[in-house]
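User: Could you check the structure of this?
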Amino acid sequence: MADETVKLYYDYKSPFTYLAMQPMYDLEKSYRIALRFIPLELNVKGAFGGTLDERDERNWRKVRYLYLDARRYANARGLVIRGPQKIFDSRLSLMSGLWADRQGKFRPYSDRVFERFFKRELDIEDGSALAKVMTEVGIDTAGFAKYLLGEGPCELQAAAAEAERDGAFGVPTMIVAGEPFWGNDRVDWLAKKLDAMNLRR
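Assistant: Sure, the predicted structure tokens are below.
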């Protein structure tokens, strides 16, 4: 039984979201919480100086350092994180995450999407590639095609509006009892908050 819902804002192209997922799953086992997964597109161009051709050296240093840190975390856990070779538009994949959540398959689907994207084995802009992953975990792909033409874009827009209300400006952002925690390295602080709320199982 869950006594508290923890919002987790995510984007499949964010290495730090990938790093946060398993620790957040683990918290759900240790505390009386339920995770609610909400897509929030990472504005890579805005955060890191425009397109790849527009970035100045200072922004390139920032990006290289962040991926160095991401690989440090990943190596410690046996994960692979390779920097994407372009700036991906993740909106299609985020709608696929919403659809997977509707089908009760968010975790098995997302685990595969994150892992393969950061191994450069999955193009998250390719609907047919995403559909193959859905098929692997038993998600209705015909229904997803209809969802993209109907509710999908509206739900993605509603998620962005909710993020704005919550003050989420990046991913991963976790929200518990109105308090934000940003970054995979804030999961321990989130756990302390849950302890203070007497939510340990």
